[in-house]
Amino acid sequence: MNVLEGLQLIRGRLVANGAQPATLQMVDGIIRRAALPAAASAAAQSQSQLVRMLMRQPATDANVEIYNDLARLEEDLNVATSARRAEQALEDARPVPKTKKYYKDLKAKQP
Question: Would you list the DSSP string of 57-87?
């Protein structure tokens, strides 16, 4: 995932959660830095990784409201990830139907 795209998604989620203006300002500053040509190739594994990176910023340490907004977002992402993993596990547990070729081969093998 591109860092700039991930940060924009995070900003959208923060707005949807009703984040404090200070949080949005901090994220906007990081987005401006990520938009520079030198950072164009930056990549992140997930939005959760980006949120954890934002939580380590000096502005987050200085302002509890920013930390709380980011912690709420991190929790939302963790819940969504857990739900997706559970859904994937159920999907993986379903039996896979056998093909017509399998039954033809089985019939051919019988005496």
Answer: SHHHHH-HHHHHHHHHHHHHHHHHHHHHHHH
Report the C-alpha gap between 77 and 3 in whole angstroms: 16
Q: What is the pLDDT of residues 11-22, one digit of tens each?
A: 999 999 999 999
Give the phi and the psi of residue 69 in degrees, each rounded to 5.
Answer: -60, -45
Please count the other Cβ atoms lying within 10 Å of the Cβ belonging to residue 3.
21
Local structure of 94: helix, strand or coil:
coil
Helix (H, G, I), strand (E, B) or coil at 92: helix
pLDDT at 93: 87
Question: From CA 34, how far away is CA 57, in angstroms rounded?
Answer: 14
Q: Among 1, 2, 75, 62, which residue's Cα sits nearest to residue 26?
A: 62
Distances (CA, A) of 35 to 2, 6, 32, 75: 11, 12, 5, 27
